Amino acid sequence: MSSAQEEPILIQAIKEGKPTVFAIGLAFVISGLAFIYMRTDLGAFEDIELNIYMRTAFIAAAFLLMYDIMEADAFALSNDPRIENPHFWVGAFHTGYLWTVFLIISSWEDMDAAAGLILQYSVFGIFFGLAMTWLDLCKRYVSVSDNFDIDNGMTRSRLPKTLYYSWPFIVILMIAALLSNPPTEAWDASYILFQIIFLGSLLPLYPPKTGGLRFWGSGVGWPRLLGYAILTAILYFG
């Protein structure tokens, strides 16, 4: 069953024809909905460690940085739609990781409760990622070759392939090391969330095609660049 059969025709046309517009627009919608939810739950000006505007920016950055990763995962899985395919497990990690990040950001209280919060939502994220990736087994992403350089993926040779498949475990270990070895004055919440988002989105399977600075179509990966810009701005100004 093709993805065109599962999504409204107009949405699918925008997704395939204008992937940059689709990714940025979807990030805007998701972060906007998150803002409305958090404003109801937290209040707009409550004295909390992370204000609602920083949280919304973190959510937008996380989605922008993870979107192309999950699209590439789905394409790789569609070529061999089996649970035995290692791309199933990497895709489940990325999907669950993004959902976990959303939950952590929206529920963040303070650094003292950070480890427990991350562990709690990580368990939920594992099951969510597995369930959503299982549902993706029947999809075909026929347009990915227009947006990504599939001939130069991370799995093309032994060293990058080993790094790519090991990266989920490395990310978990690095985050655990950060939380268990804080400086004297403790980590800043913005720094921890920056590292969680940055590390988890660092190794996409395929690089984007670089056929010019085409904002409206494929090209150099504008959503990812925008995500990095947002993350950097939060860390610098926050």
SSE layout and pairing:
Layout: H1 3-6, H2 9-17, H3 19-42, H4 52-78, H5 86-107, H6 114-135, H7 158-180, H8 189-200, H9 222-237
Number of domain modules: 1
Strand content is under 5%
**Number of separate strands:** 0
Give the mean pLDDT.
Answer: 80
- The CA-CA distance between the termini, in Å, is 45 Å
Rg is 18 Å
Shape: globular
Class inferred from helices and paired strands? mainly alpha
- Spell out the helices and strands N to C: HHHHHHHHH
| Number of distinct helices | 9
Oligomeric status: single chain
Helix content: 55-70%
Question: Major sheet: size, sense and barrel closure?
Answer: none
Poorly predicted segments:
1-6, 212-220
Overview of the structural elements:
- With 238 residues, this protein is mainly alpha-helical.
- It has one domain.
- Helix content is 67%, strand content 0%.
- The longest helix is centred in the first third of the chain and has 27 residues, at 52-78.
- It starts with a helix and ends with a helix.
Write a brief structural summary.
With 238 residues, this protein is mainly α. The chain is 67% helix and 0% strand. The chain has one domain (3-237).
Features:
globular, 67% helix, 238 residues
